[in-house]
Design a protein that fits this description.
alpha/beta, UDP N-Acetylglucosamine Acyltransferase, domain 1, 2 domains, six-stranded mixed beta sheet, 14% strand
Length: 245
Amino acid sequence: MLGLGTLTRVSRELREDLTAAQDRDPAARDVGRVEILLTYGGVQALLSHRVAHVMHDAGVPFAPRLLAAATRTITGVEIHPAARIGRGPLIDHGTGVVIGETAEIGDNVTLYQEVTLGGTGFQRGKRHPTVGDDVVVGSGAKLLGPIEVGDRAKIGANSVVIHDVPAAATVVGNPGHPVRVDGERPSGPDADWAHLPDPVADAIRGLANRVGELEELVAELTGRKPEGAEVRELPNRRGPDSVGG
């Protein structure tokens, strides 16, 4: 139903969206709320979706989709009016973000640019992801199908996730799979993308170590060391700490 209660709820959600931007986007911490509302496409897209979602639930024809289409043109963020988004989300930068019809997003979720919460087929019913509370999804990540992402999970940039994600897990790769993050937990609300583990490099390093062991065994048995089979340690490349900015 459209009315004063709905207006009050949308106003409250807008305040929470602005607070989320100030709290979780370092570039917005010294920016006024009016400026954020007028210049941040992610916040504008969320406000537009709040209105479109209310109209959709009230059974208003045509207008919700028209508003969603106009918002996509202006902000680059496409959110189906039927998608359910919780309190305090942050769509950072926003360009290229796509959130499908049956997607459900919990509270305090952070989505970076070019994230897709999409479907995998033409079936009806639930066909988009359900994302828990306090989840962070890195830029370019694709979450596909009616999967569930547990609370506090982190999805690495450009990962393709097609299976359920346990709570508090960090997922990387294509297809995405949970990995262990070495070192301390990042102190900021956003994922420390520069220091995510590299499972491919870990696998190559393991194979290189195994080859070295086999070469030593061959040398002991034959009395000669194989030539041209030097195994070099893979460098541990780390970027600057991204936490807090």
